C-alpha cells in the first residue's frame, strides 16, 4: 500500500532518520515505538504529507485516503457536536446536493427526446446508486454509535463544541476520523484524552472495523490489544517486528543477546586467527597456512552489535517529611456548577502511605476533586487536609503551561531556590537534558520531553502527598516504567488520576470510581476493579434473565461483594452457549474472508475501463460492503457475549 524508501531527516545537521525503508500493508496494525524525541510523531507527519523528509520518498497510491490525528490541533468551535461529526460525511452531502441540482434541472427542461436529456437522467441514476452504495441512509446511526462509544451521551449531540474541554473536542476529531473509514489511520497518542471505558471501545473498533492503522501510544495494554506489528525507532534506524508490543520486547532482548554472543564468538575467532598469522608470519614452513588464514580473515563478514540507546532517566522523589496519619478526609463533599451536579456526598479517608487511583469517565469529577483538595475551587461538605501535609501537584495540562520561549535551563532556574540552583545542571542531566539539550527552547521539545521538564518541578522541594493528574501522557514506555518505580519507592501518599491500566497495575491498592454523581471506593488493584465492574455488568444481565445471584453488603456503605452460584445444570447450559457462540464466531470469520475476497475481485473489475461504467458492478460492491458490515457487527456482538459468558464460567 504505502512504501517508505530511503527516508532520511536531519534537524540542524543532526540525523533523526537515516536511510529508513519499510512498507505499510493493507490491514496492518502497526505500533511505532521508541524513546521520546526518537521521531515517532515526525514519522506520522511525513506519511500524512505534513512534513517533508530531507531525502527519500513516501509512495502513496493515488486513490488512497489517509486520516491523521495529531497530539494537539486547532479545532473549530462554530458547530454542535453532531454537526461537527457530520463533517466526516461531507462527500455524502456534496453528492446529495449534486443530485438535487440535477433533479431541478430535469424538472425545468422539456427536451424529453434529446440525447442530452437522457444523459442527464443516466447521471442522476448513477449518482443515486452511488449514494445507496456508500450507505448514505445509515450515516446518522454510525455517528451516534461512534460518539457514544467515545463517551458522549445523546444530550451532548446538540451542544456547541465550544462548551467542551480540549480533550473532549479531540474526541470529536477522533470520531470524525473513524467515521471516514480512511484506508490508513495515523493516530498520535489517541488515548491521552480517553477514559478507560472509551479506550476499551476504541480497542475493539480498531481491531475489528478499521483498515490499516499506524499508531503512537505509550499505553502498553492498548497497543497490545490493537497492534500485530511493532516498528521500533532507535538512533535513526528502525527495527521491524511482525508481533505485538509484549512479544516485541521479548524478541528484541533475545535478538540483542544472540547478536552479542555471535559478536563475542567472532571476535575470539578473529583474535585467534590474527595471533596465528602474527606468530608464523616469518616462518617459511608455515607460509601456506599463513596466507590461507589471511584470506580467511579478509572473507569474514564482520558482525556489528546494534548500538543501544543507553540514555536513561534517573528519577527518585526526595524522602517525604512525615505527615499526619490521615492526609485527606472527605465528609459529605460535593461540587455543583449551577444546576449541574458533578458529584455529591463523597465520604472517604486516605491514610498516610496509601497509593490510590481516581478513575472514571471524563467529566465525572476526578480533576474537580483534585482541585478541591488543592483548595483551588469551592465545594460543599468538609474536606480536611492532615497535619503537616505538603502537596506536590502535577496538573493534567502542566506541560502546556510551560513558557515555550524559555530554554530548558531557564525554565528550571526561574523556579529553583537556595542550594538547588547550584545543582540544576545535574538535575537536568538526570532527566536526560544533559549537555546541549539544556539550552534547547521549550517550543522544540516533544510532548514527552515537556512532560519530563514539568515533572522536574516536583523534585525541587520535598513533599509527602503527590497528586498526579494524567502524569503518563506523552511519556515513552521506559520513562513510564521509571516513573512508576519512583512512585512505588516514594514513602509518602499518592493520588493518581489516570486511564493507563498497565501503569496503575501493581502501583495502587485502592481505586476510587467516579460515576453517576458518586464516588465509590474499591479495595484492590486496577484489574481487580475492572474485573469487578465486568461481574457487576454480568450480574445485571443475570438478574434480567432470572439467573440466581445474591449480593452481600458489608459495613462499608457503597462497597458490595457479589457472588454468583451456578448449579450443575446451569453450568452445562453455560458451556453449551459458549460452544454455540464459538462456532458462530468461527463462521463469521470464514464469511468475512469470503466477502473480502469477493470485494477485492469486484474492485479489480471496477479498476478496468469496462468495469468503471458497469452500474451493476457498483450495486454489487455496495451490497457486499453492507453485508460485510453486518457480519462484522455480528462478530463483535458474539465476541462480547462470549467474553461475558466466559467470565461467568470462571
Automatic annotation (TrEMBL):
It comes from the Bacteria. CDD domains: ABCF_EF-3 (cd03221). GO terms for molecular function: ATP binding; ATP hydrolysis activity. SMART domains: AAA. Residues 544-564 are annotated as: Disordered. Keywords: ATP-binding, Coiled coil, Nucleotide-binding, Repeat. Residues 2-260, 328-541 form the ABC transporter domain. InterPro entries: AAA+_ATPase (IPR003593), ABC_tran_Xtn (IPR032781), ABC_transporter-like_ATP-bd (IPR003439), ABC_transporter-like_CS (IPR017871), ABCF_ATPase (IPR051309), P-loop_NTPase (IPR027417). Residues 544-556 have a biased composition (Low complexity). Residues 564-648 form a coiled coil. Belongs to the ABC transporter superfamily. ABCF family. YbiT subfamily. This is Probable ATP-binding protein YbiT.
Amino acid at each position: 500500500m504505502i512504501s517508505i524508501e530511503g527516508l532520511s531527516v536531519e534537524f540542524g545537521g543532526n540525523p533523526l532518520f537515516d536511510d529508513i525503508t519499510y512498507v505499510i500493508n493493507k490491514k496492518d496494525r502497526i505500533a511505532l515505538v521508541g524513546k521520546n524525541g526518537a521521531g515517532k510523531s515526525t514519522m506520522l507527519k511525513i506519511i500524512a504529507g505534513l512534513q517533508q523528509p530531507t531525502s527519500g520518498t513516501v509512495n502513496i497510491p493515488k486513490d488512497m485516503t489517509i486520516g491523521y490525528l495529531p497530539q494537539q490541533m486547532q479545532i473549530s468551535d462554530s458547530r454542535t457536536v453532531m454537526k461537527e461529526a457530520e463533517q466526516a460525511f461531507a462527500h455524502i452531502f456534496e453528492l446529495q446536493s449534486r443530485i438535487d441540482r440535477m433533479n431541478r434541472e430535469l424538472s425545468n427542461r422539456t427536451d424529453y427526446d434529446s440525447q442530452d436529456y437522457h444523459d442527464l437522467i443516466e447521471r442522476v441514476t448513477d449518482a443515486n446508486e452511488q449514494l445507496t452504495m456508500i450507505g448514505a441512509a445509515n450515516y446518522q446511526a454510525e455517528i451516534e454509535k461512534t460518539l457514544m462509544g467515545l463517551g458522549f451521551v445523546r444530550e451532548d449531540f446538540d451542544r456547541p463544541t465550544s462548551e467542551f474541554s480540549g480533550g473532549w473536542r479531540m474526541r470529536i476529531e477522533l470520531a470524525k476520523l473513524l467515521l471516514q473509514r480512511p484506508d490508513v489511520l495515523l493516530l498520535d497518542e489517541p488515548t491521552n484524552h480517553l477514559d478507560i471505558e472509551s479506550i476499551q471501545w476504541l480497542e475493539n473498533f480498531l481491531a475489528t472495523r478499521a483498515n490499516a492503522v499506524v499508531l503512537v501510544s505509550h499505553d502498553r495494554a492498548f497497543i497490545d490489544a490493537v497492534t500485530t506489528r511493532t516498528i521500533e525507532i532507535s538512533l535513526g534506524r528502525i527495527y521491524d517486528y511482525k508481533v505485538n508490543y509484549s512479544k516485541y520486547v521479548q524478541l528484541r532482548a533475545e535478538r540483542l543477546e544472540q547478536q552479542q554472543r555471535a559478536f563475542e564468538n567472532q571476535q575470539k575467532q578473529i583474535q585467534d586467527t590474527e595471533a596465528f598469522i602474527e606468530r608464523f608470519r616469518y616462518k617459511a614452513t608455515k607460509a601456506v597456512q599463513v596466507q590461507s588464514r589471511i584470506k580467511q580473515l579478509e572473507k569474514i563478514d564482520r558482525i556489528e552489535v546494534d548500538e543501544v540507546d543507553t540514555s536513561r532517566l534517573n528519577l527518585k522523589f526526595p524522602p517525604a517529611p512525615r505527615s499526619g496519619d490521615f492526609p485527606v478526609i472527605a465528609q459529605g463533599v460535593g461540587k455543583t456548577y449551577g444546576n449541574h451536579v458533578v458529584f455529591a456526598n463523597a465520604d472517604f479517608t486516605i491514610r498516610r502511605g496509601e497509593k490510590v487511583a481516581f478513575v472514571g469517565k471524563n467529566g465525572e469529577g476526578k480533576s474537580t476533586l483534585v482541585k478541591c483538595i488543592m483548595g483551588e475551587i469551592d465545594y460543599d461538605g468538609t474536606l480536611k487536609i492532615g497535619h503537616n501535609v505538603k502537596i506536590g501537584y502535577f496538573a493534567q495540562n502542566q506541560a502546556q503551561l510551560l513558557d515555550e520561549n524559555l530554554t530548558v535551563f531557564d525554565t528550571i532556574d526561574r523556579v529553583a531556590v537556595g542550594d538547588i540552583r547550584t545543582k540544576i545542571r545535574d538535575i537536568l542531566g538526570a532527566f536526560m537534558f544533559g549537555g546541549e539539550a539544556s539550552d534547547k527552547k521549550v517550543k522544540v521539545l516533544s510532548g514527552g520531553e515537556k512532560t519530563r521538564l514539568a515533572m522536574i518541578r516536583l523534585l525541587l522541594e520535598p513533599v509527602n502527598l503527590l497528586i498526579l493528574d494524567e502524569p503518563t501522557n506523552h511519556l515513552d514506555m521506559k520513562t513510564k516504567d521509571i516513573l512508576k518505580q519512583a512512585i512505588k519507592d516514594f514513602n509518602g501518599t499518592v493520588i493518581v488520576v489516570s486511564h493507563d491500566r498497565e501503569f496503575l497495575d501493581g502501583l495502587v491498592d485502592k481505586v476510587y470510581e467516579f460515576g453517576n454523581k458518586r464516588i465509590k471506593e474499591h479495595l484492590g488493584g486496577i484489574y481487580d476493579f475492572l474485573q469487578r465492574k465486568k461481574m457487576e455488568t454480568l450480574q445485571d444481565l443475570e438478574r434480567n434473565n432470572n439467573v440466581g445471584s445474591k449480593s452481600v453488603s458489608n459495613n462499608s456503605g457503597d462497597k458490595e461483594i457479589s457472588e454468583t452460584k451456578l448449579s450443575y445444570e446451569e453450568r452445562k447450559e453455560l458451556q453449551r452457549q459458549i460452544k454455540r457462540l464459538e462456532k458462530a464466531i468461527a463462521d463469521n470469520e470464514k464469511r468475512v474472508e469470503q466477502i473480502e475476497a469477493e470485494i477485492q475481485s469486484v474492485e479489480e473489475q471496477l479498476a478496468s475501463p469496462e468495469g468503471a461504467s458497469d452500474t451493476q458492478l457498483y450495486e454489487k460492491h455496495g451490497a457486499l460492503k453492507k453485508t460485510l458490515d453486518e457480519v462484522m457487527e455480528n462478530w463483535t456482538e458474539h465476541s462480547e457475549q462470549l467474553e461475558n459468558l466466559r467470565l461467568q464460567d470462571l
